Amino acid sequence: MINKMFFYANFRTYDNTLGITRKVYAQIEAFQKLGYSVTYCGYLEDGVAVFDENKKILVYKKYPAKNKDIQHLIRRRMLMNACIEYLSASPEHFGFAYVRYHFFDKKYIELLEKLKNAASKVVIEAHSAPKFSSKLSPMYFIGQRDSKWNKKAKEHVDLVASMSDENKLWDIQTVKISNAVDVATIPVHCYVGSTDDINFISVSFERDVHGYDRLIRGIRNYYDSGGKRNIFFHIVGTTLPSTRKLIKKLGLEKHCVLYGSLSGNDLDRVYDKANLGVGCLANHRIGSFFGSALKTKEYIAKGIPFIYGWNEKVLEKFQYAKKFELCEEPIDVFSVIDFYDGIDKTDLPEKIRRSLGKEDTWEYQMKLVVDTLSELKNH
Q: Is 126 helix (H, G, I), strand (E, B) or coil?
């Protein structure tokens, strides 16, 4: 197999405060450790670009407008066009292409077709087959388009790297992978708050699936039901307007602290104020009930217990996380307190981190993909 690969990655190359940015760079490094030269793409602050293995820009397209909302609407198509332009002009042939799932439409199929011509094999990475059930959501219309075009996927795709339990997606064979983490890049947690307080933390580019409204409503219910402990929710990253409105509506401004985007030492300092992480609590809103959350692995690497809602196989017997049903009910904060108080705090961060093994590294997960591609080639 040719030791060159193309990575279609729709991520913000410039913003390491985002988990997805750290994930993609870690995946690129993992492929490099496996012996591959990686050509990849991504978003810039002022446009889109294709990069070589040394991060040199090969193709650059500047956004035609400075308005961020307009940029967000057009960047996906611009990125795919930049990749198609590069692949059309480049004489290089790739051993395989690794493509993040990005909703099927005519342009995405065009990209996959171009990748199939330029690479021996094409892999799509996807959590699961997305479901677009609510006709009230804008995502429903994207889903209608997706369902029209995803039937063509098997013409151009050889394998799906799936974080679900499905053996086939879009009628294509899957290899089951999970999100991973580089423990060496994550400082161990050191709680500096009061042992009597409950300090939640979330770090995300917030979307509805995170379900932070469930926890916020749960905090309100806790106090309305006579709860006496000090409860704080430290929210790092971008926040939905609806979340900010809910905090104000419920009078929880002193209990829900908004920090905006943080990274490095600034982020570590907020982490150390917290003693419980918050995973995704509302994946059911997009019809997803099983998967692998990047945030889950980051909390474990940090060494902090957490709450979550997704069905994650790696957490089935994990004693340092509390699972809640995926629904619209507020989180029962009383039960969270019982869970946290029942944990032996002796060397807690180290005990949690030690639960990670070699299978939790990106090199291990990406090797599963490479090995499966080799098997496909030999059959």
A: strand
d(CA 311, CA 140): 23
Q: How far is CA 197 from the centre of its chain?
A: 29
> What rounded mean pLDDT belongs to the chain?
91
The pair of three-digit structure tokens given for residue 110, joined into one six-digit string: 């065009």
Q: Which two tokens stand for residue 136?
A: 């009230």
Q: What is the dihedral of CA 9, 10, 16, 19, to 10 degrees?
A: -90
What tokens were used for 365?
A: 């997960």
Question: pLDDT digits over 147-188, tens only?
Answer: 788 899 999 999 999 988 788 999 999 999 999 988 888 899
> What residues have CB less than 8 Å from 91, skipping those under 6 apart?
none
- Among 209, 77, 73, smallest CA distance to 134 is for 209
Binning the chain into helix, strand and coil, the percentages to the nearest 5 are 40, 20, 35
The stretches of 197-239 forming alpha helices (DSSP H) are 212-224
Residue 378: pLDDT band (50, 70, 90) is: low
Distance (Å, rounded) from C-alpha 112 to C-alpha 243?
37
| Contact criterion met (CB below 8 Å) for 162 and 177 | yes
Angle between helices 212-224 and 333-341 (to 10 degrees): 90
Rg of the chain over CA atoms, in angstroms?
A: 21
pLDDT of amino acid 294: 82
Long-range contacts at 28-34 (CB < 8 A, ≥ 24 apart): 29/362, 30/361, 30/362, 30/363, 30/365, 30/366, 31/5, 31/7, 31/98, 31/366, 33/363, 34/363, 34/366, 34/367, 34/370
State the pLDDT confidence band at 129, using cuts at 50, 70 and 90. low
Q: What is the mean pLDDT of residues 288-310?
A: 88
Q: Provide mean pLDDT across the span 244-269.
A: 95
CA–CA distance, 9 with 99 (Å, rounded to integer) = 7
Contacts of 138 (CB under 8 A, 6+ apart): none
3-class DSSP assignment, residue 234: strand
Residue found under tokens 């339990």: 165
